[in-house]
Amino acid sequence: MADCMQEWPEPVVRVQALADSGLEAIPRCYVKPPCDRPAPEADDASSGASIPVVDLGNGGDDEGGQLAEAVAAACRGWGFFQVVNHGVRPELMRAAREAWHGFFRLPLQEKQKYANSPRTYEGYGSRLGVEKGAILDWGDYYFLVLSPDAAKSPAKYWPANPGICKEVSEEYGREVIKLCERLMRLLSASLGLDETRFQEAFGGADCGAGLRANYYPRCPQPDLTLGLSAHSDPGILTVLLADDHVRGLQVRRRDGHWVTVQPLPDAFIVNVGDQIEILSNSMYKSVEHRVIVNAEEERISLALFYNPRGDVPVAPAPELVTPERPSLYYRPMTFDEYRVYVRKNGPKGKAQLEALKGQSITQNNE
């Protein structure tokens, strides 16, 4: 990584500590421009819009049939969907969420032992991107690498308390990765490809996974800020275990309006990332999303990011490139190259993907 990626450009302030201090107005560095502030909840609550629901228990052994069509429809219409009957035990989902809730309940001094840096992001963090003077998001997080084995976060990055955190998170990760592999087969089949095509293109068994536990404290002025700014995810798939009591995730519809997602009990929220948009030659698009915060309640969620192997160049699948639909992307790019943009700049809508349609991200940021 470049020298600017070695340390944070300013002292890191924990948002949870700010919230617990009882302040009545948020610091200026968290105040978003008016165009980026959340709209009143009533605007989307009355629209009746909601992301699709895919029941993975309905397909039997027919991975290329009914289920593939359901996934295809969800990807074409939204880029987001909820999955039910997905095979991950509800008790494991609850245990993982509660373990990380336990970490964020610890005294600040204990959590500070795991403070992260932009070199790897592993550990306890409170900002994304290394831009000095950036407008920050109202949230803290903890990030770890779960796979492949060669890249897993070493023991020093795992919190010692709660003691169950590592064990339950690794089991949770293994089960959600199986779900991602199944969704990859469905995505391949939905585009008329061999069901192993997507997995192979992204690195096969060496695809990676990272876990980010997100903590959004109460905010005295939730109309002025965001828990996480609008962005699309840089990887293949994201599987989110949302808070089961407090809504916060918003998805941007094609008409530009934001819809607040109502999580279903024991469901996962899945979205396609930028690498799917590239490999599918934009037949499936990654979608901007963001997180709003709450004046009354804190919120916690777990996001598992399923990513390509870092050194595999990703480009549109040749089978999906035709004279009528030429390749939309500038050149093949590895995920290691691609995510440098995000790590430098933080969440910036779909800027990293749009740059790839014109000139290379690397060239654009040298």
UniProtKB/TrEMBL annotation:
* Domain Fe2OG dioxygenase span(s) in chain numbering: 207-308
Alphabetized Pfam families for the sequence:
2OG-FeII_Oxy, DIOX_N
User: Key word Kinase present in the record?
Assistant: no
Q: What are this entry's molecular-function GO terms?
A: jasmonic acid hydrolase; metal ion binding; oxidoreductase activity
Alphabetically sorted, this entry's keywords are: Iron, Jasmonic acid signaling pathway, Metal-binding, Oxidoreductase, Plant defense
Q: Which GO terms describe its biological process?
A: defense response; negative regulation of defense response to insect; regulation of defense response to fungus; regulation of jasmonic acid mediated signaling pathway
Which domain of life does the protein's organism represent? Eukaryota
Q: Which cofactor does it need?
A: L-ascorbate; Fe(2+)
Record carries keyword Iron: yes
Q: Which reaction does it catalyse?
A: jasmonate + 2-oxoglutarate + O2 = (1R,2R)-12-hydroxyjasmonate + succinate + CO2
**What family does the Swiss-Prot or TrEMBL record give for this protein?**
Belongs to the iron/ascorbate-dependent oxidoreductase family.
* Name of the featured protein: Fe2OG dioxygenase domain-containing protein
Classification lineage: Eukaryota, Viridiplantae, Streptophyta, Embryophyta, Tracheophyta
